[in-house]
UniProtKB/TrEMBL annotation:
Keyword Signal: yes
Gene Ontology molecular function terms on file: thiamine binding; thiamine pyrophosphate binding
Species per Swiss-Prot/TrEMBL record: marine metagenome
Record GO biological process: thiamine transport
Classification via Pfam families: SBP_bac_8
GO CC aspect terms: outer membrane-bounded periplasmic space
Record keywords: Signal
PANTHER family per UniProt: ABC TRANSPORTER SUBSTRATE-BINDING PROTEIN, THIAMINE-BINDING PERIPLASMIC PROTEIN-RELATED
Listed name of the protein: ABC transporter substrate-binding protein
Length: 334
């Protein structure tokens, strides 16, 4: 400060430290490109808030948070899957979002809201069943995986370490045994589907589908578009099973130790606007969480009243038994 004052008295312009940016986060690849081109510029232009985008994955953000501690987080708002957010919330990193600071929360579908506003879902990608129309008949329900002969040996499932794999277990437990936490019974039930191919992430599953090694598998509604870009999209469809869908959600959380909470509230409110939600629909095939979003007429994904068909999980409870589920799955599905 003394050096700055001295320069000023000598006739040099005072050096004013640049305001620290609002630190938010994103996944890499196409997701990052979309955020940098379609979301960040318009947010900065409309609010005047300079924004820094941190690129990583759920586990990486958790590791970074733990290294920094709750009082000195490297992020101001964290977007992540609830599988990770529930852990971080339990470790004291987040605080509730004041609804008067984020008025667009009032227009959200119930599936996007949390009790006591401890977080809010800003992006939502439901998963149904994707199938090769040239190889197998159309499914109507998750139960069809067990009953339709054409699916035998042509089913693909995600590994248990992928959240879609874990959610398949939870959905099976819920549908067949009345509670999503009847995980051992669910694993025994899924074992009846063997042989099936397992994929560690969506790109691997889509390769199996393109090659015809898999003809039916859980998938998000954007998968058809991705496969169409690879020349196979006209041979696949995605349906919403009658028992409901699970989802990949992006949960927005305010960091308790953030020094830019007011700016963070503006970021979340911006994400929840109908205009930004429409961008997510068009650019990422996400289901819009704001009821007022004008969805294009040709959008084939989930929206409107069908948002009520999405099944959500208590990830604090699910994570508590995760190690047991992984061990049991790996033993039974080898």
């Amino acid at each position: 400060m003394a050096g700055t004052t001295a320069l000023s008295t000598l006739g040099f312009p005072a050096i004013v430290p640049a305001a620290a940016p609002l630190v938010v986060n994103s996944y890499g690849g196409a997701f990052e490109k979309f955020m940098r081109s379609e979301i960040i510029p318009s947010f900065e232009a409309s609010t005047g808030i300079k924004t820094k985008l941190d690129i990583n994955l759920g586990k990486g953000w958790l590791t970074t948070l733990r290294a920094a501690g709750p009082e000195n987080p490297p992020y101001d708002v964290l977007m992540t899957n609830e599988t990770w957010a529930s852990v971080e919330r339990g470790e004291g990193f987040f605080e509730a979002i004041p609804e008067d600071k984020v008025p667009n929360m009032a227009d959200l579908y119930p599936v996007a809201r949390y009790k006591d506003n401890i977080a809010v879902i800003g992006m939502l990608s439901p998963l149904g069943l994707l199938y090769r129309t040239d190889q197998v008949p159309e499914p109507k329900s998750w139960a069809d995986l067990w009953s339709v002969p054409e699916y035998r040996g042509k089913t693909g499932l995600y590994t248990v370490t992928n959240s879609a794999g874990y959610m398949t277990i939870l959905m099976t437990a819920r549908n067949w045994f009345g509670s999503e936490y009847e995980v051992d019974k669910a694993i025994d039930k899924i074992k009846e589907l063997k042989p099936f191919l397992q994929a560690d992430f969506g790109g691997t599953m889509e390769k199996y589908l393109i090659r015809g090694e898999v003809a039916i598998a859980p998938a998000d509604f954007a998968a058809k578009g991705r496969m169409m870009s690879k020349g196979i999209g006209e041979k696949v469809e995605v349906i919403a099973p009658k028992e409901g869908m699970f989802c990949w959600e992006q949960v927005f959380n305010v960091l308790k130790g953030s020094k830019k909470k007011e700016e963070g509230y503006q970021w979340i409110n911006y994400i929840l606007t109908p205009e930004v939600q429409k961008k997510f629909v068009i650019g990422l095939s996400q289901a819009p969480v704001n009821k007022k979003t004008q969805v294009p007429a040709d959008f084939k994904g989930i929206h409107g009243e069908r948002m009520n068909e999405i099944v959500m999980w208590d990830w604090a409870k699910a994570n508590a038994i995760r190690d047991h589920v992984i061990t049991r799955w790996n033993k039974e599905m080898r």
